[in-house]
């Protein structure tokens, strides 16, 4: 009788997910987000070797969600799986990531246009709310706080665009360049100021909130141009060990 009642509830709800199933899915996503955070802020250093057990200890999640997150991050080219030798955080290849930035430019313009054209009232209100928060807090915003807001902006734009395929394509690119931005603002001399990137994000939010696709694409291009400019200084003056911690230090360095 209880089984039949449960079957009827499943039919009515339109889902076959048990509460345990939903919780496992949530843990998968939470584990991914936690490891992604550690990659972005370089607590997991580019080039660092580790194991699945290390990630379990660091994140507090069990083997299954961590293993799932690792497989996803490996597909995203952010973690390298070395059979019988554990894992390695993917080192940063500035030439490759500068090249991929042009791919992001094209995809981002398409996504931004869709978001501006399709944004619901709820999406537009969220954009205006995040815009107000950025304006109010910009003077005291830390890099970690900005990255948390940046992730919310990315999620909002993808939700407003309404095409899941684009989310799977852009999400790893967002993580790659959030990590580049972290290193740029944290380690490059004189680059701690977040005003440039905040201004670009404010322009995107305002354009999407007002459903101005032309302005949204222009603001997206400006953001990509800003990110591209970061590579000039990093290619010339970044400590290579910040991009790959497995590089042996020079004598006396």
Q: What does it look like?
A:
- By secondary structure, this protein is mainly alpha-helical.
- It folds into 2 domains: 2-89, Winged helix-like DNA-binding domain superfamily/Winged helix DNA-binding domain (Arc Repressor Mutant, subunit A), CATH 1.10.10; 94-240, GntR ligand-binding domain-like (Four Helix Bundle (Hemerythrin (Met), subunit A)), CATH 1.20.120.530.
- Helices cover 73% and strands 4% of the residues.
- A hairpin with a 3-residue loop joins strand 2 and strand 3 (86-89).
- Helix 3 (52-59) packs across helix 4 (63-75) and helix 5 packs parallel to helix 9 (195-209).
- It is globular and about 50 Å long.
Topology of helices and strands:
Blueprint: H1 2-13, H2 19-40, E1 49-50, H3 52-59, H4 63-75, E2 79-82, E3 86-89, H5 94-118, H6 121-137, H7 143-161, H8 164-187, H9 195-209, H10 213-237, H11 240-243
Antiparallel strand pairs: 1-3, 2-3
Brief summary:
The protein has helices spanning 2-13, 19-40, 52-59, 63-75, 94-118, 121-137, 143-161, 164-187, 195-209, 213-237, 240-243; strands at 49-50, 79-82, 86-89. With 253 residues, it is mainly α. It starts with a helix and ends in a 10-residue tail after the last helix.
């Amino acid at each position: 009788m209880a089984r039949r009642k449960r079957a009827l509830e499943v039919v009515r709800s339109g889902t076959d997910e048990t509460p345990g199933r939903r919780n496992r899915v949530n843990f998968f996503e939470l584990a991914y987000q936690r490891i992604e955070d550690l990659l972005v802020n370089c607590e997991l250093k580019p080039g660092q070797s580790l194991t699945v057990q290390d990630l379990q200890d660091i994140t507090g999640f069990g083997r299954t969600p961590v293993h799932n997150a690792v497989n996803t991050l490996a597909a995203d080219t952010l973690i390298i799986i070395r059979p019988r030798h554990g894992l390695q955080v993917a080192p940063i290849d500035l030439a490759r990531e500068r090249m991929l930035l042009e791919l992001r430019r094209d995809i981002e313009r398409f996504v931004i246009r869709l978001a501006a054209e399709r944004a619901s009232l709820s999406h537009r209100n969220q954009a205006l709310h995040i815009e107000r928060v950025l304006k109010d807090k910009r003077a005291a915003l830390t890099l970690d706080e900005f990255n948390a807001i940046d992730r919310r902006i990315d999620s909002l734009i993808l939700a407003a665009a309404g095409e899941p395929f684009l989310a799977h394509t852009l999400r790893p690119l967002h993580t790659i360049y959030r990590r580049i931005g972290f290193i740029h603002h944290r380690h490059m001399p004189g680059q701690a100021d977040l005003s440039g990137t905040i201004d670009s994000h404010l322009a995107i939010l305002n354009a999407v909130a007002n459903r101005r696709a032309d302005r949204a694409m222009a603001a997206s291009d400006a953001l990509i141009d800003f990110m591209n400019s970061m590579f000039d200084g990093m290619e010339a003056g970044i400590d290579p060990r910040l991009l790959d911690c497995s590089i042996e230090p020079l004598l006396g360095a």
